[in-house]
Amino acid sequence: MEKKLFLYILLLLVFLSATLGVVSASENITESTSEILGVGENIIFEDEVLSASADVNEELNDEVLSAAAENDDVLSAGEGSFNELQLLINRGSGTINLDKNYRYQPGDIKTGIVISKSIIINGNNFTIDGMNQAKIFKINSNGVTLKDLNIVNGYSENDAYGGAVTWAGHNGIIENS
């Protein structure tokens, strides 16, 4: 009888020590997992990270364009640069009403002012001048309208897709331009 009791107690101790080992292992794994998840959250929330990354990139681009737009030494009074117009388009929505002419300057966007959202640009008979050195617009969005706008002296290297406007979107309108 003593032997059976001894075996039961021994068996119980082995079982308890095995159970404690498993519990300890799971605690360690949980701690490690939470540390790994802290680092790997980018993988789990990939869409959110890409969205945040795109927002940061747009903000950085806006800051660079804003700094470039402030450098108006070569522009005459009442004229804006391509970088300034790009910044206006990036920040605008709905209808953008131009209140001055825009002219390409060295250091500006040479491959075209990018329009990547549905927008109306009301030129109010102002002029966008590529100075025979830059493409004027690169439109990648549907539903873009260019209205009452003079587009002159566009240039495209190797005559690639025209110098004034490269239009990849659908349902676009050019009105009185």
Low-confidence parts: 25-57, 64-75
Rounded mean pLDDT score: 75
Task: Please work out how many helical segments DSSP would assign.
Answer: 3
Instruction: Give the amount of beta strand, in percent.
Output: 15-25%
Number of strands: 9
Distance between the termini: 106 Å
Helix content: 40-55%
What structural class do you assign from the helix and strand content? Answer: alpha/beta
* Shape summary: rod-shaped
The main sheet comes to: 6 strands, parallel
Order of SSEs: HHEHEEEEEEEE
The Rg value, from CA coordinates, equals: 31 Å
Describe this structure in words.
InterPro entries: Pectin_lyase_fold/virulence (IPR011050). This is Adhesin-like protein. The chain has a domain of 97 residues. Helices cover 44% and strands 23% of the residues. Strands 1, 2, 3, 5, 7 and 9 form a 6-stranded parallel β-sheet that branches. A 3-stranded parallel β-sheet has the order 4-6-8.
